[in-house]
Amino acid sequence: DIAKLFCVQAMAFLLAFYVANLALEGGVALFPYQSIGDIAGLPWLLMVLLALFLILRLPLNWYSRHIELAADKAALQLSDNPEGFITLMTKLTDQNLSEAEPVHWERVLFRDHPSYNERVKLAHEYKHAPI
After folding, report:
1. Of 48, 97, 119, 121, which has the fewest CB atoms closer than 10 Å, so is most exposed?
2. Residue 97 — left, alpha, or beta (φ > 0 → left; ψ -120 to 50 → alpha)?
3. What is the pLDDT of residues 22-40, one digit of tens each?
């Protein structure tokens, strides 16, 4: 799964740089730049890249959370110890001073791992699931 995530992220960055190149070429027509190599186009390029990376973060973060949740499920199945899993997640959350449940917009925009509450809920569901 790490290899898949790496490939997906690499493709996303290549796409972003390709679109940024197109935007920079379009910027030559819109703004008084000499060419795409003109240093005056740097602010335009940075603005386009920032916008693209913010847009691409949404699906990339979702995919990363999806992979992490699958890894958590595998850990629960392998260890068959949901209480130990909850204890581990609690200690990690406390040690890292993480929020147990970030607000929705923060989770979608910035978080690439499931929240503490999502992981604890998963462990409780595993504990109470019929065998």
Report:
1. 97
2. left
3. 998 998 888 888 888 888 8
- Choose between 89 and 34: higher pLDDT: 89
pTM above 0.85, yes or no: no
CB 61 within 8 A of CB 112: yes
Other residues' Cβ atoms within 10 Å of the Cβ of residue 126: 17
Contact 37, 58 (CB under 8 A): no
pLDDT at res. 124 = 93
The owner of tokens 């940075």 is: 46
- List C-alpha distances in Å: 120 to 1, 93, 103, 114: 22, 11, 17, 10
Assess contact for 86 and 120: CB atoms under 8 A: yes
Structural domain boundaries in the chain: 2-128
In the chain the first and final C-alpha atoms are separated, in Å, by 27
